[in-house]
Amino acid sequence: MKHYYKLDEWNIIENGFNADKNEISESIFSLGNGNMGQRANFEEDYSGKSLMGNYIAGVYYPDKTRVGWWKNGYPEYFAKVLNSTNWIGISIKIDGLPLDLAKCNVQEFERVLNMKEGYLQRNFKAVLMNGNEVEVQTKRFISMVRGEIGVIKYSIKPLNFKGKLEISPYLDGNVMNSDSNYDETFWDEISKGVKPYDAYVMLKTKKLDFHICTNMTFELTKNGEIIKPLVTLNQSEKYVANSISVNCDKNDEIVIYKYVANTSSRYYEISELIKITRELALKAKKDGFEMLLKEQSEAWHEKWKESDIVIEGDVSAQQGIRFNIFQLNQTYTGDDSRLNIGPKGFTGEKYGGGTYWDTEAYCIPFYLSTSKKRVSKNLLLYRYNQLDKAIENAEKLGFTNGAALYPMVTMNGEECHNEWEITFEEIHRNGAIAYAIYNYVNYTGDKSCLGEFSFEVLIAISRFWAQRITFSASKNKYVILGVTGPNEYENNVNNNWYTNKIACWTMQYTIKVIDYLSKTESKRLSELVVKLNFKDSEITNWKKIIKNMYYPQNKDLGIFLQQDDYMDKEQILVKDLDKKDIPINQNWSWDRILRSCFIKQADVLQGIYLFENEYDVATIKRNFDFYEPRTVHESSLSPCIHTILAAKIGNHAKAYDMYLRASRLDLDNYNNDTKDGCHTTSMAGTWMAVVHGFGGLRVIDNKLILNPFIPEHWCSCSFKIMFRDALLNIKFTKNIIQIQNENYVPVNLLVYGKDYPLNGNDLLEIKIQ
Amino acid sequence: MKHYYKLDEWNIIENGFNADKNEISESIFSLGNGNMGQRANFEEDYSGKSLMGNYIAGVYYPDKTRVGWWKNGYPEYFAKVLNSTNWIGISIKIDGLPLDLAKCNVQEFERVLNMKEGYLQRNFKAVLMNGNEVEVQTKRFISMVRGEIGVIKYSIKPLNFKGKLEISPYLDGNVMNSDSNYDETFWDEISKGVKPYDAYVMLKTKKLDFHICTNMTFELTKNGEIIKPLVTLNQSEKYVANSISVNCDKNDEIVIYKYVANTSSRYYEISELIKITRELALKAKKDGFEMLLKEQSEAWHEKWKESDIVIEGDVSAQQGIRFNIFQLNQTYTGDDSRLNIGPKGFTGEKYGGGTYWDTEAYCIPFYLSTSKKRVSKNLLLYRYNQLDKAIENAEKLGFTNGAALYPMVTMNGEECHNEWEITFEEIHRNGAIAYAIYNYVNYTGDKSCLGEFSFEVLIAISRFWAQRITFSASKNKYVILGVTGPNEYENNVNNNWYTNKIACWTMQYTIKVIDYLSKTESKRLSELVVKLNFKDSEITNWKKIIKNMYYPQNKDLGIFLQQDDYMDKEQILVKDLDKKDIPINQNWSWDRILRSCFIKQADVLQGIYLFENEYDVATIKRNFDFYEPRTVHESSLSPCIHTILAAKIGNHAKAYDMYLRASRLDLDNYNNDTKDGCHTTSMAGTWMAVVHGFGGLRVIDNKLILNPFIPEHWCSCSFKIMFRDALLNIKFTKNIIQIQNENYVPVNLLVYGKDYPLNGNDLLEIKIQ
After folding, report:
1. Whole-complex ipTM
2. pTM of the shown model
3. Scanning every residue of chain B, which has its alpha carbon at the shortest distance from the alpha carbon of A476?
């Protein structure tokens, strides 16, 4: 495969200016710090194709739902993440002619995302229409240390002329969302101010009254010396700018350092916002670019220490996995339990920036292993805080008694999705939210969340399942009718095996938790029983359902059946499809996809992955060998689970093959949609593919389990994980596994089925036969 | 039940002005002539709630599709019928104060729809805010004889004052559709002209370039004497008016006769349009109101002669059925094979005025029995003319070899519906279109359409079915996966019995037609075989499918099963539902409806109705007794079929009960949605309920079959039908059936299973034991 970006272990590098790919690169080179994010739009004016994007975490807009034929239960509004004030803008005029790469001859263009230190660099030479040639070098970052701060160093040098440079740093709230219904804007100006070297705008969303304030200050040098030219002030609706003229000789280097603070009323009093924002920006300027960059570099060093994966012998894979880890760490830091991880992170506005089950199914395993446990705990709290809305949502659909249905997509707990087959039917998401609680407890060993809050979530979800089932007199079993499983290429099916499985599992786990709490926190349990008006008869009922649940299967093939009647479909394999039909979601009508046996992501395998311990390898293999060849993997979340299971059953070639599909999805624009933003949540899946797949990592009964294997042409693979306060560096080659405990906390390991206690700071070496 | 409109055999009467019900009455009192239609909006200005509606048959607009989440295969545009130039407008000012019923004290208001003669009358007294009292009497009609002509007689009389009347007849193209996406307008002005007593506007649709021209002329009388006051001319964008001042004494009667022609480029050259329209309007004025009204009355007399139903002893039922017949005759005259019957006729814009399978399933039986056969033949031709588009539509969904999928909703042959579960899956509509051909041939005995054009339609539909089936290895049968049946409360089900049945029936009938043509029109058949590239192997394949089709059934209950796995649902009966849950489509979320056993309209019964001859009464009864109690009849098309089958199995009480739900649906605003327009197509179903249900009318082997029974408290019921050029008046009481052949053509009857030849002009009397 030819790669557009240059292969490099620590950097993403674009060589040459390619306007056609600009929107893709804007996604790839995005920066963020969990608090805000910015696509790699240019600082200077650009009249070419560009998707402007600056997003402030948690600031959203409840836009009117767009729907063909309304159905009862649809939400009236859906939240969308908002493009907010453009804070990077620096207009440049050279002898009166704007610098605009769409109208220049661009040479030696290079864009570099330095993932090790967390900054974006851009260099180019541009020949303007009048023949003037300039060299530009920019460096910018969004501080991982100071959540509100973005900094830009913008250097410009006349190469073949002497003339006047006009430099206008600005802030501009006249921004749009590309997914607005009628090209409307979402912001009103509240106030603005512009002084020399200091300007701000404060905006308010037209609904919900989120206030954001943006303040800029800046400094100029000429050939390294600070200069303070006179400033012209400009302002208009939602717009403030300073304009500066500098006369330059050939090869003079003018540098502008722009320091910007972006704050929101989510963290500060509105009355304080202007003042605080200004102080933050001025403080940044005072500390200076180099110091901020040093902080940034150190912060990223810490991040990498806890979450890096090193692959020797495959720079493409190395770059791919680091890019994924980098984006995940830019997106969510776990500091605010009101935030979550949108499918595109801060790299685009698609999917409205909402929270999906991706978080629980794919992201939590990543954050569990690579961050302090408070990060994952905040993700559990996020759902707990939205429990009331999930109960309301279920009530809207006719459920009672505190049953909760978490939304398919949400920003504040309300449903944002409005296609019945997803909104109302893709209810397995509820199970993933319960499973995440189990996952957290199992991985961290920290059961305090159960009594604190998670119990309430489990009860509400179990209550939902207990009402959502139907007793089929004809089967003499409980069934679950009318669902869409994780395989969204089937809609409104009966007895989706995965959904039936996770429904019963939730009730089972909830009963276990009740048992645990009754033994350890009986007082707290009594309080909760009263609060939730919980009855013992509910447990009896759940047990009856668990015992009598119907699971579709095909006994001849020895497999679990994706859903009732799946075997009525014409059984074709993906390999026998005409290549021109792939991807089928771009080439086939929806009904044809639904009628076919083809699977977007195999949900039976997803279930087997979650409940792997219940199945022997032969069962897993039979199911894998049946479903994988029918799976088109047209969900970016699909290949990772298949990697893990292929590894489990020893199909290493398939595991690696699946891994390749995921690891460079965005870098190689595999799905031809990276311009909309990166597939942030599926990046966590790729991490899982390495650690759970190639590493074979599991946690069972408080023991860390490893079963590593290394893909054929890799020399070594190593990853960092945190487990119960231990920090482990796990490296494996074809011949040896080395596990370095980089912390003082001892840990129990089970490698290839054999127990190894590992003391603090010890190194364990295991030779592979 | 309390009726809002006064019960009357021939008239719909509203007594008293009720602004809240005005939009409902605007629908009920609508006028039309097959070529255009007009809601019962007031002539004078009205600032209260009103849905303005003037529709020109066949003039539509391809508006942009509104959709939540796009799916491959969705149409980019959907056609909508357009509200066009307001031609009825007559502004009235009395001593400078506008006459506006929303701002007057309205007394003795009466609105009468005279169905016998086809006009709308309105009388009222209004006390204006200044105390002036006027009496107004209006009469208007849309000519059934002159397709383009609408006429208004508007009389006004000062009752308690002497003063100045300003009368301004106008034409106004500044009209909206209430279902426009962004409140946009759809018309551009092409030209206009205004002279005294003569004005026109010509508009063009913003897309597709339909031109419509409207010309008005008028005449005034004072106390019966023609007057010709001076005229002030007014015009603005898309608007022309004449204004006239008349000084009146108390009790002077001023009458304005407004004659309007509405033409479109669908019938005339654009260059001729202005001239022709003017000539039509002037000719109408020349002939005069009384002559036009006489024509109108005579035309309706002819209509009633062929299609009346008389019910003695139940004025409510009498009024209901006549209203339905009246509306059907106003909607479609069968003169233009490019026109069809929208679900709301000309009474509202809902459903976009498009063509649904309603036409074939419900309307064709009505027109077959009550009009010359060319009327139904034109409805067959409508689909033939759109065959290429239906083939294109199927190709879009992946079908090949000339397979056709007719759209669910259409204006010009292109699909206008965009919800996948309907658009792509409610494919049974294709079967209804084939069945209509059979129905036409069976009823009329006229097989000429087969070779002429219908054969091509049948081949294309059969080809669709042959590709749409799947061979299920697990069932060793052909199955049809992923469909929505006529019961739209199930989506994406497998093996909907009705769909499987009508699919095989279509192929079977097509083979029969091939056989017929090979014997009678072998040369024509050869031509068609070449044209369609038809292969004998297709017949072989169809036969294999027909032989091996899977039909779900429940052997224990002895019933056909609506779809696979229907018996997994919780089996509850409608009678056991909480009343507050009904109608479920307003009270339940969509998923709850889908999961429930409740049925919108029972499609197994629909299938049994179509293929009744194949089943014995015991089978029909078992199915009826199973499905009807589970059916909520929330489709206006549901009760009529149930009436017919209930009659068939001798459940007369149920038959009458079902009939009541349908017959006065709009007059009693049963579904609380009549303000959007009348349920025109379901009115044909009500007619079927009487004639096929109570009358037991069938045609088998060229014989007219009757099995009448009369509801308990009716004295007599009689209906007119045409059959093979005979015109029959069939009247039945509890004791006797009288069949008068009102024509010279003899006919063979089978009444209660006994043969009766009936000669021309003869009367047959059969005593009922």
Report:
1. 0.91
2. 0.93
3. B568
